[in-house]
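Support request from a user on the community tier.

User writes: "When I paste my C-alpha cells into the form, the page sometimes reloads and wipes my input. The last time it worked, I copied everything first. Here is what I submitted, just in case something in the input itself triggers the reload:"
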C-alpha cells in the first residue's frame, strides 16, 4: 500500500514590510532628527560651515587667483595668499561680531559685541515662535507675516498714540503681540477645523501681510508729514530704553528676549498645556486617546507662535529702527526657522543659536567693508549649516532603517526555525 503524499509544511519566507509604511516611518524619523539634531551634529555643522565658507573666500580671492597663475614657479606665494584669505575670513568675522582690536577706543572696540546682540534679539524671539510650533508638530512658516502684522500694530501705537512714559512702550508691545497672535490664529483655526495644511496657509498669509504692509505705508495715516514707504517716527515714550547709552544701539529688547526664553521654557517643561503641546507633537492619535483636545492645542499653539512673532517685531520697530519700513521684517521670519532647527527647538538652544546668527550677520558687515568679502558668504554659511544637519540626519535615519530591517529579517527567520525542525522530523517519520 502506497504511503500518502506528505505536503511540505515549510511556510513561505516572509519579507519585512518595505512598502509605504516603512517609507513613512523613515520620513518621520528623518523629520524628527532634523527638528532635534544632536549636539555633536550641530557642532560639526557649524564648524564645517565656517571652514567651507573660508575655503570659498580663498577660491575667489583675487590675490590667491593671481598667485595660482605661477604656482609651480613660486608655490610659497600661493600658500601665503591662501592663508591670508583663509585667516582673514575668521579675523573679519571676530572683529565684526565680538571685539575689534584695531579700534582706537574701548567703546568702539566693544561695539561689535553689542551689535551681535542687537541683531540676535529678533532672531531669538522669532526662533522661539518657530520652536513652539515644531514642538507641537506644526510647521509655522508664517512667522514672517506674523512679524509684519505685529510691526504694523505695535509701530502704529508707537507713533500715533500719545501715552505716558512707561505705559506707552508696554501698550505698544502688547499691541504687537496681539497683532501677531491674530495672524497666527488664522492658520491654526483653519487647520484644526478644516484640516488645511498650515505650511500652505502660512506661506499665503506671508504674501498677504507683505502686500498689506506696502499698502499701509502708502497712506498718509502712516507716513504723516514724511514720504510714502516709511512711517512716522515712533515717539520717544514708545521705544525701548537704551542699555548702554546713546553710543550703542543695544536696548531693553534683549531683556524681552531673555524673558521670552524663560517663559517658553516654563510653558513647555513645567505647565500642563506644555505637556499637551509635546504630547500632540509626539503622537496626535495617542494624545486624543489620552483625552487631550488636539484641535484646541493646534489653535492655541499657532496663536502663541504668532504672539511671539509679534513680540519679535518690537525689537526693530520699537528698538533700533523706531519706524515702520517696507523691509522692517527683513528675513527674520525665515532665518528664525534655521535658528529653531539649530537650537533643537529648545529655548536655551534657540537663544545661543540666535546669538550665533546675530554674530554672523554683524561680522558679515565688516567682512564686506574691510576685507572685501561679499556679505552673501554669511547666507552661504547659514545654508551649509542647515544642509549639513539635514544630510547627517538623513544618513542616520537610513542607517536606522537598515538596522530595523535587519532585525525584522532575523526575527522572521528565528520564528520559523522551529517549524523547519518539525518538518524535518515529520519527513523522517514518514520515511
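"...and here is what came back when it finally went through:"
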Amino acid at each position: 500500500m502506497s504511503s500518502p503524499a506528505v505536503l511540505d509544511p515549510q511556510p513561505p519566507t516572509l519579507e519585512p514590510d518595505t512598502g509605504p509604511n516603512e517609507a513613512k516611518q523613515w520620513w518621520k524619523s528623518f523629520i524628527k532628527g532634523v527638528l532635534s539634531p544632536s549636539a555633536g551634529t550641530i557642532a560639526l555643522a557649524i564648524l564645517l560651515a565656517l571652514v567651507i565658507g573660508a575655503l570659498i573666500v580663498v577660491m575667489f580671492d583675487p590675490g590667491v587667483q593671481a598667485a595660482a597663475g605661477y604656482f609651480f614657479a613660486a608655490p610659497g606665494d600661493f600658500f601665503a595668499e591662501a592663508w591670508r584669505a583663509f585667516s582673514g575670513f575668521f579675523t573679519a568675522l571676530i572683529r565684526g561680531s565680538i571685539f575689534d582690536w584695531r579700534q582706537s577706543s574701548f567703546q568702539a572696540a566693544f561695539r561689535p559685541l553689542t551689535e551681535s546682540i542687537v541683531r540676535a534679539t529678533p532672531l531669538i524671539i522669532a526662533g522661539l515662535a518657530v520652536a513652539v510650533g515644531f514642538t507641537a508638530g506644526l510647521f509655522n512658516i508664517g512667522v514672517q507675516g506674523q512679524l509684519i502684522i505685529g510691526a504694523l500694530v505695535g509701530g502704529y501705537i508707537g507713533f500715533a498714540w500719545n501715552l505716558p512714559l512707561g505705559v506707552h512702550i508696554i501698550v505698544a508691545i502688547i499691541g504687537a503681540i496681539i497683532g501677531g497672535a491674530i495672524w497666527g490664529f488664522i492658520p491654526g483655526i483653519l487647520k484644526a477645523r478644516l484640516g488645511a495644511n498650515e505650511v500652505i496657509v502660512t506661506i499665503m498669509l506671508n504674501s498677504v501681510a507683505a502686500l498689506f504692509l506696502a499698502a499701509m505705508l502708502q497712506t498718509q495715516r502712516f507716513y504723516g508729514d514724511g514720504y510714502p514707504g516709511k512711517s512716522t517716527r515712533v515717539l520717544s515714550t514708545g521705544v525701548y530704553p537704551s542699555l548702554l547709552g546713546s553710543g550703542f544701539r543695544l536696548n531693553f529688547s534683549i531683556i524681552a528676549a531673555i524673558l521670552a526664553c524663560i517663559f517658553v521654557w516654563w510653558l513647555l517643561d513645567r505647565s500642563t498645556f506644555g505637556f499637551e503641546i509635546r504630547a500632540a507633537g509626539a503622537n496626535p492619535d495617542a494624545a486624543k486617546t489620552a483625552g487631550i483636545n488636539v484641535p484646541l492645542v493646534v489653535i492655541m499653539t499657532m496663536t502663541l507662535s504668532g504672539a511671539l512673532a509679534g513680540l519679535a517685531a518690537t525689537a526693530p520697530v520699537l528698538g533700533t529702527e523706531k519706524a515702520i519700513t517696507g523691509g522692517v521684517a527683513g528675513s527674520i521670519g525665515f532665518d528664525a526657522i534655521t535658528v529653531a532647527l539649530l537650537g533643537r527647538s529648545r529655548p536655551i538652544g534657540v537663544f545661543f543659536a540666535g546669538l550665533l546668527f546675530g554674530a554672523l550677520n554683524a561680522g558679515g558687515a565688516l567682512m564686506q567693508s574691510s576685507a572685501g568679502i561679499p556679505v552673501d558668504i554669511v547666507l552661504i554659511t547659514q545654508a551649509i549649516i542647515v544642509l549639513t544637519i539635514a544630510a547627517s540626519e538623513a544618513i542616520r535615519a537610513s542607517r536606522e532603517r537598515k538596522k530595523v530591517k535587519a532585525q525584522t529579517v532575523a526575527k522572521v527567520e528565528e520564528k520559523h526555525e522551529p517549524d523547519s525542525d518539525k518538518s524535518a522530523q515529520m519527513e523522517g517519520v514518514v520515511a
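Agent notes: The reload is a front-end session timeout and is unrelated to the input. The chain is about 75% helix and 0% strand. The mean pLDDT is 85. Escalated to web team.
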